[in-house]
Amino acid sequence: MRLPFILMLGMLLGMNTSASAADTPPDSPETIHVNAIRKPEVRKYTAIVAGLDAFERHHRMAPGAEALRFKVERRAWTDKTPKPGEAPLALRLEGKDGFVLPLTLNDAVETIVPRSSAALAADSELVLNRKRRMYRVTPLVRSPGLPENVRRLGDLRLECQVLVAIGKEELGLMRTLFVNSVLLTPNWCNFFNAEREGFQFEAPERLARATLREGDRTKDLPVEGQSFRTAMNDPDWSDDALIELAFEPVTETAGETPRTGP
Questions:
Q1: Contact at 8 Å (CB) between 227 and 203?
Q2: What does residue 137 show for φ and ψ, rounded to 5 degrees?
Q3: Residue whose C-alpha is closest to residue 133's, from 33, 37, 68, 225
Q4: pLDDT tens string 135-185
Q5: pTM for the complete prediction?
Q6: Contact 241, 212 (CB under 8 A)
């Protein structure tokens, strides 16, 4: 079962997403005109709506998170040096008959994608003004008041539900039924329990370790590069358990670009 499981997980993670945006008509002066770039990053708006539905359905896991956010992240293998004359990063919903709904990115390169009947009617897609596969748009659930290096387990459980809902919508019914049959459950997040390899989450920097903590109990989680894994369906840990991330130290050599130490 391991090979199909890894393929399914890869499909989901490969698809891996603030400021609010109201319904803006296509001819609004606030419309963002992005450069015409071949093969832009896109995602179906119907999949985004499926994620919003999952966020509301499972909101009890992270009641402090007021909204589902989507984060735009540059993939690790790409050159992060800005190119001369490169347009600022821009994100929008784009659909039939000239429909355009610009989305505002905050300083953390996050956005809130609103519900829009007009965007649905226009069969819209999420469009980024960058080449495909250079960036990814990933759902983000984060309860307020936590340090940047701390994630709440309930937030990650809800994030998993959102990601799976988006993945199912993009995969389509037949492929979703196939994965259901492989995992023996339609609730893909519940496949990841204390006995099975955990679901993978990304950190902003390379990790030295990740520690699951609740009360006096701790558990070291597997880490690899900038990712860590944790079980989604382990009843021994509540939604309020915290994951503390320790990053590898950044070393700097004179005349060289700072790099992450080994």
A1: yes
A2: -115, 115
A3: 37
A4: 888 899 999 999 999 999 999 999 999 998 998 888 887 887 877 777 767
A5: 0.78
A6: yes
